[in-house]
Design a protein that fits this description.
The protein is of the alpha+beta class. It has four domains: 2-73 and 289-316 and 524-578; 79-287, Immunoglobulin-like; 334-382 and 472-520 and 587-665; 389-451. The chain has a seven-stranded mixed β-sheet with strand order 6-9-2-1-11-14-13, with no helix packed on it. A four-stranded antiparallel β-sheet has the order 7-8-3-22, with no helix packed on it. The protein has a three-stranded antiparallel β-sheet with strand order 10-15-12, with no helix packed on it. Strand 1 and strand 2 (101-112) form a beta hairpin.
Length: 695
Amino acid sequence: MDVLSSIIGSLVEILILTLFAIIPIFIIWFFMNLSKKNSKMKKYRNFSITLMSLGCFFLLITGTTYFENFHSKSSSNVSTVADGFTIEEYKIKLNVNKNNVVDVTEIVTVDFYESGHHGIYKFIPSWLEYTGKDGNTISRKSTIQNLKAEGEEYSIDTVNGKDKITIGSPSDTLTNELKTYTITYQYDMGEDPFDGFDEFIFHSFGDYWGTRINNASLEITMPDTIEESSITFFSDKYRKNDITSYVDYYVVGNTLYAKVSSSYDLKNSLTVDIELPEGYFIDAKSSYGYSSLISCLLIILFAIVTLIKWLRHGKDYHKRSKTVQFYPPEGYDSATIGYIYKKDSGRKLAISIILELASKGFIKIDELKEENIVKITNLCPMDINKAINRQITITKLKEAKNAEDEKLMNSLFEGNSSSGVITENFNEFYDSTKHLVSNGYIQIDSDSISNYTKEVLDNMKNQIREKAFLGKPQMTSNEQIVYNQLFADGDTNILSKDKNFYQVFDKITKNLQSELDDKINDTNSYKNMAITSVMFLVGVFYLNLSLSIFEDLNPKFNMIYIFAFIALIIILILTILMKRKNTYGEQMIAKVNGFRNFLETATEEQINHLANSNPNYFYDILPYAYVLGVSKAWIGKFGNISVPKIDIGNFDYVNIDSFTILSNSIYYPSSSSSSSGGCSSCGGGCSSCGGGGSW
């Protein structure tokens, strides 16, 4: 019944902690996405990415915590130096009960030979390593109760998983005096872990006081008689340094009296080991719980559920055979094909659309090699500014104070004139003269575009567009986005000087997401991806609880931590693989792959036939070859086939390096990042078996 109650209590505790941890994350995510007009697919994806990122972050913390705890439990012989005090006498009295519960009294007499101290502190860890007479070293958990300091002001807290008692008052300062402290507590060592024999092992005094312990003595009262020959003393926890010869001890009935010889320099823990017959301790209770075990089993269960979900909803459909495609799927521009193929960056997709607009005769691309820049010209001008004969009138108010501003002012005003008129490059004008206006150098008197309402301007733009595009192929939405951004400020664009064109990268990506995600991806797989992302985050949370909060797993089952960690990795991998395309998406991938395969393997005869039937075939296909990563192979197909010369600029379309030049010509704002790091400490006393110091 006690076991069942403990299991139920552990489950309730885990559930409550889970709710406290997960609910705030859901609330934050909900409000972050409340005002966004995202598709369901994008919401599921963003939610999953958020949770997986948080999970990976906490998993890193969990791993760090695990190794820190491991080091803390297994470390030994870390030296510290006492500051202004010595221990003149240290007496420990142990009253060992039949159920292996030890009533401990520690009497410490300290000589504060320097002023400024308030008292002492001592660590009492619940996890310790014990080495039995069989030579096996095990970790063992004990329970500490009723920790107090008799007749003194004290406080208790937990540092690095160890109980710490701090004795003294911050308002009282000790001055060159001897002071005796009495610390009492109950130490429940739990069930005897050794097979075939019982053994009482106690690490006395504690490591790392940092000073010699003078007059160290032990008084241990056992529940039954003990043999003097069964007693051994060590200066470490691993039975490697036997110092029994340096301890004066004797047994009276069932009580052991021991004192460390003054000739031995005791600075670390003294381990007393009493070998006992099997069954010496009875009715001892287990000091281990079920919370860590249940948490790890739940993580493994999550991994099984994730595997089932992946097999049912995330495993890709059977790959369809590649189809022979001489042309890309109808109605899909190069950016769409690049997105479907491998979700290329917005930059590469934008470059492909620029090539596509040139192929269709909307623009021409010129490399001005003497200036090392790329210029793009609109072959279908529809500038509303020209249609309304837009003019901006300005007035000079005062002379500029520096050479740079003076040069700009001279370009705005002819000679000594105090007035000027701007008839082109309007956006560039506003950008470059903001500081001139704010500093009172010039004044903008009027802008003729303000004479028209937005509705009138939109109608005029539509009429101009219809005339300009007469006889041209219909633009796709991605082509319109790039085209409008290229000529937002006139009919020519110098990419390296256009400070806004880079914004099109994100616009294209968002447009493709809104048009394609729900169309080609399996929505159900994204839902399950969100569910398994929650499982991953909860699993990481559970593992962290197990290692740093509960810490109640029997060391015999420590391998379950490894299994739980592996289960988390499985959940993470399967969650990432969970998303898949639907049937239509798989069909599109098959067509795209078939088209790409044709571009790589097409014979000269096939290319020649297609080029004869469509003289513009090379230019039509080039943007697609670029996003599919086979532009070099495609250009190579025309080694013996003449590429027709058309009026789309002097850009070297048959030179693969030209695409790099085009890409690098686009202005992109520089970014800088800084990071700061730090460290924190969680207090002193990195002892694996107690110890303390002054404060």
